[in-house]
Fold this sequence. Notes:
The chain is mainly alpha-helical. The protein has helices at residues 15-29, 43-52, 62-72, 77-87, 92-105, 107-116, 118-121, and strands at residues 36-39, 57-60, 131-132.
Amino acid sequence: MIYPLAFGFANSECTESCTWFLKKLRKVIQYPDGVMLVSDRHNGIFNAMDVIFLDAAHGICAYHLAQNVKRFCKQRDDVIWLYYRATYAYRIEEFDRVLSELKETYCKVYDELLAAGVKKFSHVHSPRKKVFFNDHQHC
């Protein structure tokens, strides 16, 4: 399925702006079965999704989550590498193995990722198709 590309310009990334944008997006794409919106975890996006796309799944942009991981672990390349390997794993066994290695390497990052929700950042655990809603081009 092909979706139209949509851009919105607003004064700020707040609930009001995100609600406006998602209303416009919903008008164009309707409500396809199994849609998933991927964002940078901004509260304005969460609030708007709860109103406009009630049953949509929500994912976390891998790039933005990686930026949080980098800040959390003081830019340790080995930890970042493990995070990306887990995020883009093709098989559950591979994801589990890499996440176990991450737990042994840097337990705090492991705990933070589990708190974020595996289904929200792991491709292999993703419950639905993804529609990216983000203010950056990294996703």
